[in-house]
Amino acid sequence: MAYDREKQIAIESALAAAKLCEQVRGNIPPAMEKGDKSPVTIADYGAQALICKVLAEAFPDDPVVGEEDATDLQTPEMAENLTKVTNYVKEQITDATPEQVVQWINQGNGKVGPRYWTLDPIDGTKGFLRQDQYAVALALVEGGEVKVGVLACPAMPVENNKPGMLYVAVRGEGAAMMPIAGGELTPIKVVQADDTANLRFVESVESSHGDQDRQNAVAKAAGITEPSVRVDSQAKYGIVASGKAALYLRLPSPKSPNYRENIWDHAAGAIVVEEAGGRVTDINGKPLNFADGSKMVDNRGVVVSNGIIHDQVLSALQSFSS
Ligand code: AMP
Ligand code: MG
């Protein structure tokens, strides 16, 4: 099968990262602040180190465009935090040194090119800190098209089992999910038109990451009468892909009109939804651009749906201007 090795390595590394994140989460981590004031934790760094190490060994020529970078972690004030990150990494790579950890994290400083990986080691760090949803998100992009995507969502409820669900997709081969605690990959599909019980919509918990008033108005206009389910991270894509919601709206926040979405916040989720039969565009119906840089400068917001209601949602959007 095409991309079989990439898929296996992506799953293996995302599971290793998810394990590290859950160990950190069990110890309720204090957040550090990055230059842009966004939070980062020991687990963001540790997860990026583990995944970049595995990718560098398996695919030495592939750049990785990761969210984190070890510059801050290398400063003398952060020495204690670097030791903590290294100790968590050592749970899985027993002889890891702080120097190696820094080097692995910085392997995520690659550039967007003809073939690259993009990684958000913890998407939804705010959710992670609140003990809510978060995702380890890893995707392979070739020729501007996402070819493989893995979303590990360690806090996702699983029926009759421990929490934790992994979603995976390969272009042209469909999407599947598997409990992180163990089990088989099961194919997943988006909500069908007659499945009214699952015709709900999801949006971010963080009101500043979207426009919740407009999101609610548009969902109503598209026939969704239930209030939204608020979920952190790309776990929202997993929820749409597995047929638990028909729509995920991420409309630009009026408070940050110049915000542009990052490729690592959407690449893995987008392929999982598309391969489950859904559709992903920006608010103008344009495909998300994974070809040109880490920020999707020509896209505005994101609309994710089961496909069936997509055009209706896009036209409703026009009538609720921001
Ligand atoms: P979510 O959990 O869906 O709110 O998504 C978390 C992601 O939102 C983070 O990884 C950030 O990259 C991203 N983010 C930060 N600020 C904004 C903003 N103003 N608008 C949209 N997304 C944002
Ligand atoms: Mg993110």
Mind sketching the topology for me?
Blueprint: H1 4-26, E1 32-33, E2 39-40, H2 42-58, E3 64-66, H3 79-90, H4 98-106, E4 115-123, H5 125-129, E5 135-142, E6 145-153, E7 165-170, E8 175-179, E9 186-188, E10 201-203, H6 212-221, E11 229-230, H7 235-241, E12 247-250, H8 267-275, E13 279-281, E14 302-305, H9 310-319
Parallel strand pairs: 3-4, 10-11, 10-12
Antiparallel strand pairs: 1-2, 4-5, 5-6, 6-7, 7-8, 8-9, 12-14, 13-14
Helix pairs in contact: 1-2, 2-3, 2-4, 6-9, 7-8
The structure holds adenosine monophosphate (AMP) and magnesium ion.
List keywords for this structure.
single chain, 322 residues, alpha+beta, five-stranded mixed sheet, binds adenosine monophosphate, binds magnesium ion
How would you describe what is shown here?
This protein has 322 residues and is of the alpha+beta class. The protein has helices at 4-26, 42-58, 79-90, 98-106, 125-129, 212-221, 235-241, 267-275, 310-319; strands at residues 32-33, 39-40, 64-66, 115-123, 135-142, 145-153, 165-170, 175-179, 186-188, 201-203, 229-230, 247-250, 279-281, 302-305. The protein is built from nine helices and 14 strands. The strands form three sheets. It has a seven-stranded mixed β-sheet with strand order 3-4-5-6-7-8-9, sandwiched between helices. It has a five-stranded mixed β-sheet with strand order 11-10-12-14-13, with helices on both faces. α1 (4-26) runs antiparallel to α2 and α2 (42-58) crosses α3 (79-90). It is globular, with a radius of gyration of 19 Å. The mean pLDDT is 96. Magnesium ion binds next to β4.
